[in-house]
Specification:
The protein has eight helices and ten strands. With 238 residues, the chain is an alpha/beta fold. Helix 1 packs across helix 2 and helix 2 runs parallel beside helix 3.
Length: 238
C-alpha cells in the first residue's frame, strides 16, 4: 500500500499558534501520564525556529518539573554561546520550568565522534522516551539524518545498538555552516511512546508527501513513519 497523508495521522490546524498549543498540550499529556505511572517523564526535543513558541507554552504548564527530563534529539557541535546551539534555545524556552533537568549533547570533546561513547551512556539511561518531537528540513531530513551524509545508514539502522551517533553533514547543503552534528538514532525514535512532527507551510506539507513516495535514503523522515506507524503524528499549519 502506498503511504500518503491520508494514511498516516496528519493533523491540520487553522493557525500556527493553534498547532503550537496542540504540541504543548500533547507534551503535557505525556508528562502527566508518566507521573501518573509513578515515574519521571522523559522527553526528547528538536531544535530549530519552528517549535520554540510551543516549548514556551509547554514550559508554562502547571507540572512538577522536578520530575521531568528533557534531552535533545540532535544538536550542532557548537558551544552554548553560539547561534546554532539547539541546547541554548531549549534552555531559553524552559527558563520558567523550575527544577527541570536538561541533557545537552555538546561535550568538551574535540569532535562528535570522540564524544559518542560518553553520550551514548547518558542517553541509554534515559531510554525509552515518552514523547519525541521532530521537525523536517527542506531535504526531508529529520534529526541530523541527512540524505548526503556518510553516516545516514548507521543512523537509520533499525537493528543498530547505538543510541547516539556523531554525524558528518559536510555534504548536506542545508547543514551549512554546521557540518558536525550529534544525533539520536532511529531505534531511539521508533521506540518512543509518541512521536510528534511539527511542520509549518505549504512547502513542508508537499515535501512530506513527496518523502512518503521516495526512497528512505533520499528522504530520511520516511524511516520514522515506516518504523513508528500510528504513534507518529504530524501537526501542520500553513
Amino acid at each position: 500500500m502506498t503511504t500518503s497523508l491520508t494514511t498516516i495521522p496528519f493533523l491540520s490546524f487553522p493557525s500556527r499558534s493553534a498547532a503550537e498549543e496542540a504540541l504543548a498540550a500533547a507534551l503535557e499529556a505525556g508528562v502527566r501520564d508518566a507521573h501518573a505511572d509513578g515515574r519521571r517523564a522523559r522527553i526528547a526535543l528538536s531544535g530549530g525556529s519552528s517549535p520554540e513558541l510551543a516549548y514556551r507554552a509547554f514550559a508554562a504548564k502547571d507540572l512538577d518539573w522536578s520530575k521531568v527530563d528533557i534531552a535533545l534529539v540532535d544538536d550542532r557541535w557548537v558551544d552554548l554561546d553560539q547561534a546554532g546551539s539547539n541546547q541554548a534555545m531549549i534552555e531559553r524556552a524552559f527558563a520558567s520550568a523550575t527544577g527541570i533537568t536538561i541533557f545537552g549533547m555538546k561535550l568538551p570533546n574535540a569532535s562528535p565522534k570522540l564524544a559518542q561513547a560518553e553520550l551514548d551512556g547518558v542517553y541509554r539511561a534515559l531510554r525509552p522516551f515518552d514523547v519525541i518531537v521532530l521537525g523536517m528540513g527542506p531535504d526531508a531530513h529529520t534529526a541530523s539524518w541527512f540524505p548526503a551524509s556518510p553516516d545516514l545508514a548507521a543512523c537509520l539502522d533499525s537493528q543498530g545498538s547505538a543510541t547516539v551517533l556523531g554525524v558528518d553533514a559536510s555534504l548536506a547543503p542545508v547543514a551549512a555552516p554546521y557540518p558536525e552534528r550529534m544525533t539520536v538514532t532511529l531505534p531511539v525514535v521508533s521506540e518512543a511512546q509518541q512521536i510528534l512532527i511539527l511542520l509549518f507551510g505549504a512547502d513542508k506539507k508537499q515535501i512530506l508527501q513527496q518523502a512518503l513516495e521516495a526512497p528512505v535514503t533520499n528522504a530520511p523522515i520516511k524511516a520514522v513513519l515506516e518504523a513508528s506507524g500510528a504513534k507518529c503524528i504530524a501537526l501542520w499549519a500553513n
